[in-house]
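Pilot study result, target chain (466 residues):
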Amino acid sequence: MSTSTPVTDGSGELRYEDLVATFERAAKPNLQDHRIGTELECFGVRIDEHPRPVTYRDDVLPTLEALRDEMGWREGPSRGRNGALVELVRDGASITLEPGGQLELSGAPLATLHETCAELSRHERELDAISRDRHLVWIATGFHPFARLDEIDWMPKPRYDIMRSYLPTRGRRALDMMARTCTVQANFDFRSEDDCGRRLRLAFALGPVITALFANSPYEEGRYAGYRSLRMEVWFHVDPDRCGVPEFVFDDGFSFSRYVDWALDVPMFFVVRDGRYHRYHETFRTFMTKGFATEDGRRFHATYADWLLHLSTLFPNVRLKPYLEVRTADSVPRPYVCTLPALWKGLLYDEDAQERACALVRHLSRPALLDLWAEARRAGLASERIRRLCADLVDAAWTGLDRQDVRDATGRPETRFLEPARRLVQEGRSPADILLERLGPNPGTGDEARRTLCAATRFAGAPGPA
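Predicted structure:
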């Protein structure tokens, strides 16, 4: 997606105008320049006599090394504690680690859905090829279906050490979010400040419908948790400062400054200097004003790199970076994973489809949106009103993609990626309902139950026990 560089007055000091310019310079007036980026997270499980979550040393590190040595990935600039390998890069994409060992593919910014789905398919094939002989399976679901929190091996990244101590002071399910959730996300560009505001508000307003359509986390420790999307329920109990739906989103007159002002008043996790993470929980506004003094007397002042890092530590349901990041879907296996970017591309990159979608949710206030979200994460597509909304949205997205008429080398249109969504809506079933019908409300956490849960949510890797 877009990147930004700072504007300075020559003094090296960060100015408010620099922060706003992050988004101003990211605008792409020409729709033909707009791209799609897709991110997918998966849990790793070692499938042997006693299936269990992966560990960094025995499973995750060998996986990264195999992707590097056998699949042409390169080591990225980020490093964990003691130089631990935690990032791979290739052709504009990256593979990184979430706190509990979740493997995340952050796809390159690509022009078509055909390309982005091919990228995801390649990731699936590569991960499958290196994982089978290692007796690893990678599962795509929004919340880990059987692992207890005390079974999770935390990844050797200093930022996670600080988040792990701070976030539980803000929300009762913060550690569950870090270690036991996975998502599929899509990233999109914008034409201008006004266009960004329209797309941002629409993405927030459609969040509950997207949550319901991709709801795929009904289980917690082998039992039905009472939600089709337990992941989304968890996210509402993490940190009210940086998560959820900010108060300003549905106010009149969106501007980049409004987002900057909100971000400035969110407490920071840390300040990074020379590869070292310093705990710091004042707001970025305070950091810009007063700087940060270490115990040994050194004083740091805010830089543009600090600002970009801070933006990446904000977790609203739709995040504004130098692009829009929609974050409300559970991780899903094939064939649903390509459906998310297809749905959003159809709605956001076609003005008529965007206006049609806006008309469906324009009446929603912030309290009404939060009520709809509660219904979505509990009921999924079993909610009749959400199912009707979803049907209209899928049709609007279909029409939008049809008008864009982007075809692959064999003449196939991008609308084909919406077929799974149409089937789910017609049947009134979220992916979570399919799991519940197949496995029942209480599959359990024994060895055989764990193998069954892995088979039902498998993305790549070993299909069964070693």
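One observation from the pilot: Residues 193-213 form the longest helix (21 residues). A full batch analysis is planned for the follow-on phase.
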